[in-house]
Design a protein that fits this description.
Length: about 300
């Protein structure tokens, strides 16, 4: 029997096409239930304050960059969303006098419009945000060489991807969007041979850095979280790191402050990863197949799935 049609975007796969039982199980999880879903290879952690949450996120950059040597360059692949950790990263590097000459950074995604990545002058540019919030604030004598900053661009996408083979990616860090993606690994459209069932996980995991068509939910979410609600200024495509690069990272670390995805979404992906349920309609659930995943929550952002009329 064919899977349900999405209640959000009928031409797409997404989490609303899952079996209702999984959805209800996720909605019924308490905060303490979430914490109990840790298992070998999947760690769930809570932070009681936003200060401790974002500091811990920033320290992952330091953790990765301290591993870098001349013979063993190392780095981190990082998100825009959250961003609050980025100024803290620069502050830590400066205070520790951490020399980044052998360190690397991958920006995990960028908007794509008119046949190319958006320019850094574009208000929503992720490269612009990374540079302004972090890299331009690092003292020049400590700064990472420009060649070690890897931002996804159409003309150099092959080199961006191959850097994951020549440089040790210690951590891939991300947030979770409302469509349950990391980076812009959105669920696929419901077309071709995948009309009745979504692609199998093994097909999804082959996807490398690429141009992605964005689920409507992603466009609306980014208008809400970054664009002041102006959905008309959000591109409908993006360049994104893929599962193929993600699974080359030692650890995948996802940070949930509580305002990118909602109370239900963070419960659903935690449950699916904990129970080993990998379904490509929920891209984040692919991390159930990775050997070292961390989910970090701000306790005050976990919320509940109770019905409450406003």
């Amino acid at each position: 029997m064919a899977r349900p049609i999405s209640v959000v975007a009928p031409g797409w796969w997404d989490y609303t096409t899952l079996d209702r039982e999984i959805l209800e199980d996720a909605a019924n999880l308490t905060a303490n239930d979430l914490l109990s879903l840790s298992r070998p290879g999947f760690k769930v952690a809570f932070y009681d304050t936003l200060e401790s949450f974002y500091l811990a996120e920033a320290l992952e950059y330091i953790e990765a960059w301290k591993q870098a040597t001349d013979d063993h360059p190392a780095g981190i692949c990082g998100p825009i969303g959250p961003t609050e950790q980025l100024p803290l990263v620069a502050q830590l590097v400066n205070e520790m006098a951490l020399n980044l000459s052998n360190a690397h950074f991958w920006g995990m995604d960028e908007w794509f419009s008119n046949g190319r990545e958006v320019p850094v002058e574009f208000p929503l540019s992720f490269e612009k945000a990374d540079r302004e919030l972090c890299f331009s604030r690092i003292r020049p004598e400590l700064a990472m060489p420009e060649a070690n900053l890897h931002f996804p661009k159409l003309s150099t996408l092959e080199g961006y991807s191959s850097a994951f083979d020549s440089v040790h990616c210690a951590i891939m860090q991300g947030g979770q969007g409302e469509v349950k993606h990391w980076a812009f690994n959105d669920p696929p459209m419901r077309s071709g041979e995948y009309v009745d069932e979504p692609p199998p996980p093994e097909e999804f995991l082959k996807l490398g850095a690429r141009v992605v068509d964005l689920h409507p939910m992603t466009v609306i979410q980014n208008a809400r979280t970054s664009g002041g609600g102006r959905v008309y200024m959000v591109p409908t495509q993006a360049l994104s790191v893929g599962p193929a690069e993600t699974f080359k990272a030692d650890c995948v670390s996802i940070w949930h402050p509580g305002h990118h995805d909602n109370a239900f979404g963070i419960r659903l992906t935690t449950l699916m990863i904990s129970k080993g349920i990998a379904d490509t309609s929920v891209p984040m659930s692919m991390l159930a197949l990775h050997p070292n995943v961390r989910f970090s929550f701000y306790r005050g952002g976990i919320g509940s799935c109770d019905v409450e009329m406003h």
